[in-house]
Write a structure and sequence with these properties.
Layout: H1 2-18, E1 33-38, E2 43-48, E3 52-54, E4 64-69, E5 74-75, E6 81-82, E7 84-90, H2 97-105, E8 111-116, E9 122-129, E10 135-143, E11 146-154, H3 156-163, E12 167-168
Antiparallel strand pairs: 1-2, 2-12, 3-4, 4-7, 5-6, 7-11, 8-9, 9-10, 10-11
Length: 169
């Protein structure tokens, strides 16, 4: 009887070890976040509370850039980024998503993947290393018939908050 119990226990353990439960995704904390709303093209996303906003310096929706930056954003003595920075560029109407993707491909990305945004749109995410071996992230997406690029440096978790909350109005 003891052998049967030990055999059952061993088989059960082997089955569990061979078929582990899928990992539980780490939740993105949205408490302590603020909402950035772009009224020119019409999109919004969340970013960590306390970050500085550098809005577009134009009311012309033809083309513009904005930034969301953590107060501690800098490079340490070793050149590693501290904090985070997300820059967004709304390109002129004649810039297509295909041309922007091709431009990023010339940078030799470490990784390229398609991401589905909460609004249902597909976006292309590039992970690129610069000449100092720092990673930065580029997301290219078409929002309301405009090509928009987001570039981030620093902690990728901050960029994930933006990616997981980016929606059109």
């Amino acid at each position: 009887m003891l052998r049967v119990v030990l055999l059952c226990f061993s088989l059960g353990f082997a089955l569990i070890a061979c078929n582990p439960a899928p990992p539980t995704p780490t939740p993105i904390p949205l408490e302590g976040s603020d909402l950035y709303t772009d009224s020119l093209v019409g999109f919004r996303f969340r970013y960590p509370t306390g970050w500085d906003i550098y809005p577009p310096i134009t009311d012309d929706p033809y083309a513009y850039t904005f930034a969301v930056v953590s107060k501690d954003y800098s490079a340490d003595p070793n050149g590693q980024f501290i904090g985070g920075k997300i820059e967004g560029t709304v390109y002129p109407p004649e810039v297509t998503i295909e041309s922007l993707i091709a431009q990023n491909e010339t940078l030799g990305p470490e990784r390229r993947e398609t991401r589905r945004l909460p609004s249902g749109q597909d976006a292309t995410l590039f992970v690129i290393k610069d000449r100092f071996d720092d990673e930065f992230y580029v997301l290219v997406v078409e929002l309301r018939d405009r090509t928009v690029g987001f570039t981030a440096t620093g902690d990728f978790a901050f960029f994930e908050i933006m990616l997981n909350t980016l929606q059109t109005d």
